[in-house]
């Protein structure tokens, strides 16, 4: 209820500064905010039991610094990261831009984060995790790791995150790390997923617990690429596909202030492209791999459209910037109806 009053102040600040202030406030308030109860709408997906199907997408809390505060907003699950093996500052500032007329954001952050050990320390301290909350850890490669050695970074992330994550997401679709999307190519994807699947099975066997693997993909894919990714996911026992990350397209923001900034576009303009990819994956996979819908959800009806396109779960990010925490309960209520 307070967010409409706070939003003008936040929007008067630089987008990244406002983001840091909000995340810091949530980190401090993690033990103070009352629990926010959302009507039960449990979903079983990836072998996990989610209290409700509305989650936080990766990117908002890259270091896992505000897990407990974010958990108080009513999410059924939280995904943190993208985290890289070593700390890195990301791309030069400014690198995040609001486009309010389009309910959109353009960012070129570049996996700015404090590195895997810091994220793991934050996860260890989280009450949400200790109390059995579902936490995804999203892993990526360092910018200075050559693309031909990318598998090494993802294996470090997988091994480090495995003891602490409910599930692990492999991010190969950010447009802000040079050549990263090259890993969505058929040969590169087969090599990466094959290595991760083998390592995951060993880790599962040694630990006595199964940690599902998800793969986050881009919306800027043609039909042949979508089919190849779907087939690779089945072949390498990937548990879920997250559709989608940000887009390089500028459809819907032409002529707007900041509309020509470099980076990935998220929010309302990516909704249709994201849902189209989701629907194509659903048709190709026929239930063999779970689907998580993300991209352009700014009201409950958009979450329901993702479900109707084949998603078992949805994730929010940019819509939260424009709607605030009320979007979580709005989306959950929409998904509780048939």
Strand percentage lies at 15-25%
Total helices: the number is: 12
Secondary structural class: alpha/beta
CATH class term: Alpha Beta
Polypeptide structure, described:
The chain is globular, with a radius of gyration of 18 Å. Helix 6 (150-161) packs parallel to helix 7 (186-207). The chain is of the alpha/beta class and 338 residues long. The strands form 3 sheets. An 8-stranded parallel barrel has the order 3-4-7-8-9-10-12-13, surrounded by 4 helices. A 3-stranded antiparallel beta sheet has the order 5-6-11, with no helix packed on it. Strands 1-2 form a two-stranded antiparallel ribbon. The chain has one domain (3-335): TIM Barrel. 38% of the residues lie in helices and 17% in strands. It contains 12 helices and 13 strands.
Characteristic terms for this protein:
single chain, 338 residues, alpha/beta, TIM Barrel, 12 helices, 13 strands
How would you summarize the topology of this molecule?
Elements: H1 3-11, H2 15-29, E1 43-45, E2 48-50, E3 54-56, H3 67-71, E4 77-83, E5 96-99, E6 104-107, H4 116-125, H5 127-130, E7 135-139, H6 150-161, E8 167-171, H7 186-207, E9 213-217, H8 223-235, E10 240-243, E11 264-267, H9 271-285, E12 290-294, H10 300-308, E13 313-316, H11 318-323, H12 326-335
Give a brief outline of the structure:
The chain is an alpha/beta fold and 338 residues long.
